[in-house]
Amino acid sequence: MNTKQEQSADSSPLVPEDRPLVIAGTQYRSRLLTGTGKYRDHEQTRAATDAAGAEIVTVAIRRSNMGQDPGQPNLLDVLPPDEFTILPNTAGCFNAADAVRTCQLARELLDGHKLVKLEVLGDEKTLFPDITETLVAAKQLIEQDFDVMVYTNDDPIVARRLAEMGCVAVMPLAAPIGSGLGIQNRWNIMTIVEEATVPVLVDAGVGTASDAAVAMELGCDGVLMNTAIAGARDPIGMAHAMRLAIEAGRKAWLAGRIPMKRFASASSPVEGQFF
User: Fold this and answer.
1) pLDDT single digits (tens) 29-55
2) What is the mean pLDDT of the chain?
3) What span, in angstroms and rounded, lies between the C-alpha atoms of 181 and 91?
4) Which pTM does this prediction carry?
5) How many helices (H) and strands (E) does the chain have?
6) Which residues are designated catalytic?
7) CA triplet 24, 199, 150: central angle to 5 degrees?
8) Which residue, among 249, 199, 150, has the nearest Cα to 2 in the 3D structure?
9) Cα–Cα distance between 45 and 50 in angstroms, integer?
10) Which of 13, 181, 245, 257 falls between 20 and 30 A from 213, CA-CA?
């Protein structure tokens, strides 16, 4: 949940005390969550994860081997659950039934693991979420005692409803998955943040470090990304850049930016000059 700006008795803004990211009762230092797909190999996946400083890593159950195939390399050998919070996701699911089954499989593979990332897609071209199916799947998963982090569009009403249902985090897209377009509707993201009762994490659309910083400057609790790092010319270098951007953006939001003005405001005012 976001730290709100406080006011003193004379209406002067106070710098709010930062609070840790807490998801489903667990506290995290890092506000950068990373994916595990699209890397050259598992070794590069681990190196990028370390460079990002990520503590939560999301895994596409339908595309990653976490023990389903004993004859293939196991992702959990390089990202062990005793070092990282594994966040199974339902990438590739286009209806609620498939998404729920995928989460159930993840729980079996991970010995009762409850935390999942729900995404139910509505279109293969844009990969926009199908909100109707997402709401159905979220309700069923919450009833089955899953802790649901949910991928959604940037509609504040939908985000509010998902939180009220019991999702432990809402994850609005900044732009289409893998597009690298950055935050296209910051006003909606700001509204979601202002009304939030659970953590808000931007998910999808980040392309470079400045995009991540903007998300944090809007007051988001964190950012999840994969393609922006794995698809970079130097994934390890980009992972480190994203880590710094998340930290800088968070500090800037806490410090409070100056108001935007149409005209100049001198850094050294003329009032009080001696000559």
Assistant:
1) 999 999 999 999 999 999 999 999 999
2) 91
3) 20
4) 0.89
5) 8, 12
6) 117
7) 75
8) 199
9) 9
10) 13
Identity of the residue numbered 12: S
Q: Are 32 and 52 in contact (CB under 8 A)?
A: yes
Neighbours of 131 (CB within 10 A): 16
Which DSSP helix (H) or strand (E) runs through 168? none
- Confidence at residue 14, expressed as pLDDT on a 0 to 100 scale: 62
Higher pLDDT among residues 3 and 240, named by residue: 240
Residue 2 pLDDT greater than 60, yes or no = no
72 phi/psi in degrees, rounded to 5:
-115, 155
Instruction: Say which DSSP state 267 is in.
Output: S
Output the pLDDT for position 87.
97
Using alpha carbons only, give the angle 43, 45, 46 rounded to the nearest 5 degrees. 65
| Pairing, β 21-23 against β 26-28 | antiparallel
Show the DSSP H helices in the chain as ranges: 42-52, 96-109, 131-143, 156-165, 186-194, 209-217, 227-230, 235-255
Quote the CA–CA distance of 246 and 210 in Å, as a whole number: 9
Question: What are the backbone dihedrals phi and psi of residue 38, each rounded to the nearest 5 degrees, phi first?
Answer: 75, 5
Scored b (16 or more CB within 10 A) or e, 234-246 reads ebbebbbbbbebb
The CA-CA-CA angle for residues 162, 133, 143, to 5°, reads 55
